[in-house]
Request: fold
Amino acid sequence: MAERREDNLTVEKKQVLERLAEVIEKTRVMANLEVLLDKRKLLWNNFLAGLAKGLGFGVGLTVLAAIVIYFLVVLLKSLVALNLPIIGNHIVDLVQFVQEHISNQR
Reply:
């Protein structure tokens, strides 16, 4: 009877070890460990990740800025079309200030 228990325990241990091996294989622990231990691969992967992040940031910021500028232009055109006296006076003052500044630099 004791031998049978030991056989059952070894069978259960083998099953648990097989399941553990499957889980480790599925999670690719060894591949990740190899990358962590190989300094060249680690540096190369981080370099490529940095390039991708920088490129994504640049493209995303460019698209966002273009959208914001487009809506500002549309808003300003609609405000100019309304010909509001308060805004018009500020625009005239701004244009005069810029013209005076440019003429003083010459």
Summary: The radius of gyration is 34 Å.
